[in-house]
Task: structure prediction
Amino acid sequence: MRYRMVIIVTRQARELSNTGIYHIIIRGNERKNVFQDSEDKQRFLDGIEAKKKDSSFLLYAYCLMDNHVHLLLNTYNDNLAEIMKSIGVRYASFYNWKYHRVGHVFQDRFKSEPIEDDQYFLAVVRYIHNNPVKAGMIGNPADYGWSSFSKYIQPVSSTWLDTKFVLGLFANDHKAAVNEFVKFSMESDNIIFLDSEDGKPIRTLEEGRAYLKEYFENNLIVKEIRQIREDKQIRSEVINYLRATTGLSQRNIATLLEINKSTVERNK
Result:
C-alpha cells in the first residue's frame, strides 16, 4: 500500500493590538503597480472616506506608493480584516472596470503590525510620510501629494483624517504642535519597520545581490541582469520592488542592476 504525504500550511495568526492601533501595508498582487495615475490614487482615498462614514475606525496616516499602500489606523469597535476587505474590494472593482481586467488587484493577505506605545506610534507616522523620500522620489515629505503629511501642515483640518491626536502628542497649541511635528518628521532613526521582509534592513550591495538572487529564484520570467536592462517593464518592476522592500540607495540599485542612476531616478 502506498501512502501519500500531505503537507498542510496554515497561516500564522495575526498579532492583535491591545490599543487597537495598527500599521498596515497592502501590496499589489505579484508586487505589481496598483495605481497608474492620480485618478486611481484619489479613488482609493475616496474609498477610505466612504468606508469611514459607516465605521468608527480612525485613520492617523497614509501613503500611497505605486505598488503598495501604508495606513496607520485605530480599529476601535470595527474588525480590522473587514475594514481592509471593504476598502480593497471597493478599489479593485473600480480598477478592474477602468483597465478592462479581471482577477486580484492586491495580495490576498495584508501585513499588519500592532502599535502599543506613543514613541513607536510617532516613529511609524514619520516612516509612512517619508516613504517617497526613502524611495528617492522627492527630498521632502511635504512635496509628495499622496500621503497625509500635507494634511498635518495645512490650516484646515481634514474631516476623515485624525490629525489632532498625533499633533496633541507634540503640544497643546496647534501652531507649536505643527512646528514640532515637521521638525520630528525630518529626523532619522534606526528602527526596523514592517516593510522589512526578514526583520533586517537591506542596505549594502552584498545584501542586495543576495536579495536579488532570491527574487530571481522566485520569478520564473527573470533569469539574469541582462533581461532587466533590456525589458523596460521588468526593469521598472524590479526597481519598484527594490525601492519598496529594501533600504538600498538609488545609486546602489543602479549598480546592482547595472544601469544608470538617472534611469532609477526617472522610474516612477
